[in-house]
Structure formats: C-alpha cells, structure tokens
Design a protein that fits this description.
alpha/beta; 9-stranded mixed beta sheet; 39% helix
C-alpha cells in the first residue's frame, strides 16, 4: 500500500476543555485542557494511521505550537514531513458547555506564510506524491496563501497520475475544482457556495454534484449532510447513506474521519461504493468517541459491519 500524502497547510494545536456553563462576562473555571494535533490534513493522516493505513502528514511548522503539534503526532506514530516557517502555528480552543451539552469551537485564522515558504511546501509535496498514488488537501488555508494553493497541489498530483482528494471551503474550493480533482467532500453549504445558489434539497445537491462530475471538476463527489448522512455521486452511482445512529460524544473530526476512512479503503483496493460505507463508519466511530477523540479501528470495523447490513437507498436525482 502506497503512503497517502496528507497536505495540511494550516495545522493547529487543538486545546479542548469543558465548563459548567458558558456565561458571558463571568470568569468560567475550566476542566484540565486536552491537547490534540489538529487541522484537516493532520486529522486525516491520524485517522488513516488509526485504521491501519499508511499516511504521511505534510505541514508547515512555526513556534512552540508547531513544535507541540509535531510532538503529539510523533507520540501517535504518524509519519511527518515539515517545512519551517517564520510565523507561528495557530491554536484552536474547543469548549463544551456541560449544562447544555453543546460544543463550541474557536478557530484562529493561521500564520502568515511567505511565497517562498509556500513554494517549499509544494516542492516537498512534489517529492512525496507517489506515481499513481493518493494525496489529500484538507482544511482551511492561512489568509496569506493564495486561493489557488490547493489547485496547484491538484495539478502536481495530476502530473504524477495520483488521485487528489479535496476537503476545504470558500475560494480555495472553487479554485481547485477549476483544476479538477479525484474526489471532493463538501458540506451542503459548501456545495451551495460552489453552485452560487441555494440547492434547497438533497435532490438539488445530487443534481449539482452530477454537473461537477460531468464537467470533470471531480470524479467523485461526497456531500456531507450532518445528521442526515451523506451522498455519494459518481458517473455511475448515486447513493445515500444515513449517519450511524450513535450517542454523540463529540463532533470534532467527523468529516476528516469520513475522508480518512474512504481513503484507507480505496488504498486497499475497495470499490468506491464500499469505501464510502467504510468512511461513514469511521465518521460514526468519531461521533461516538468522547470529546475530541478520533475513531479507532475496532469501533469503525464494528460499525461498518452493522451499517453494511442496513438499508442503503439510492439518492433521488
């Protein structure tokens, strides 16, 4: 199995805690903080490794937060390729309100990355992407990076005949789809931003996803629908899978787990439709895990076995 390159241009040190109740203008005493390496591409690499796949995380490192992210990844035995930057890696703060059970995420924008540093990241990407392999670009871009950054990465992957998987939003999503990708995983709201109009229903999401496939913006579109599950659209398949019915311990990383689970299965040679089911199981396992903990292989495999026996209906459209 070839190593999957997980490009994370905006990693973060995630610090999660809980308070009795979120109240404005009051000093709130927090539970001890739990640190996790975060950011889309980082989490995808962590999920792939947890599920027994082979992945390497490529990301910029700056300041003590960046060093801490690397130390935490080393503790999880996630292979790393880093590019030093002058700016400081960001941190994110996640607080759970015990009174309501709701979880709040406070996400900073990220460091300034110079043009030279951006070139070094992409040069490292060129060296890491295997001929005919898989690569993923996931997460937000720091404000200093141009919106075509993921599009440039997708072009590099195409030159290596590698499948490029995209999970981002805004202008970066639109720009990369102009280049064309192997797989894209937008939320319904992100898909609407690409369409430039409300899609209003699952049928609308399917119809526009089929447009993206027809114009070769993506070979595979996976639209995440939150509690309603997700939709898979290819040139031969339209499939809806419901979300796993589990007691939700936390939502952080569920989307990254869907991507990581799918890529792990695709790298094993599974058909895309089956890989989609495995990704949904990984997402469900992350939802079931407490706080900001990601899925584990045992729970993912168990949920996959359970979900494989449930009804999976074709989506309309």
């Amino acid at each position: 199995m070839k190593s999957i390159v997980c490009l994370a241009p905006n990693p973060a040190l995630d610090v999660a805690t809980a308070v009795a109740e979120l109240v404005d203008q009051h000093k709130m005493r927090c539970d001890p903080g739990v640190e996790q390496p975060g950011g889309g591409g980082i989490n995808v690499a962590r999920v792939i490794r947890r599920l027994g796949g082979d992945a390497i995380a490529l990301y910029p490192v700056g300041g003590p937060y960046g060093e801490r992210v690397s130390a935490l990844l080393e503790a999880e035995c996630v292979p790393r390729a880093t590019v030093p930057i002058a700016g400081s890696t960001r941190f994110s703060f996640i607080a759970r309100d015990k009174a309501s059970g709701r979880q709040y995420q406070f996400v900073l924008p990220g460091p300034t990355i110079s043009d030279q540093e951006a070139r070094l990241i992409l040069e490292r990407f060129v060296r890491l992407v295997s001929e005919g392999g898989l690569a993923v670009g996931s997460g937000s871009l720091p404000p200093s990076l141009s919106e075509d950054f993921y599009g440039r990465a997708a072009s590099i992957a195409a030159q290596r005949h590698a499948g490029f998987v995209l999970d981002t939003s805004g202008g970066a999503l639109v720009a990369a789809l102009r280049q064309g990708v192997y797989l894209v995983k937008p939320s319904l709201r992100e898909l609407e931003s690409v369409a430039g109009r409300p899609l209003r229903s699952h049928d609308g999401a399917v119809a526009f996803s089929r447009e993206l496939v027809a114009r070769h913006a993506a070979e595979i579109v996976v639209v995440s629908l939150g509690a309603a599950g997700a939709i898979l659209v290819t040139d031969r398949t339209i499939q809806h899978r419901p979300a796993a019915q589990v007691a939700v311990g936390g939502t952080v990383g569920a989307g990254d787990s869907l991507v990581g689970g799918m890529l792990t299965a695709i790298a094993r040679g599974w058909p895309v439709e089956e890989a989609f089911g495995y990704g949904m199981a990984a997402a469900g396992a992350t939802l079931l895990a407490p706080g900001t903990t990601l899925c584990d292989r045992e729970t993912t495999d168990r949920l996959h076995s359970t979900l494989a026996g449930s009804d999976v209906g074709p989506a309309s459209g």
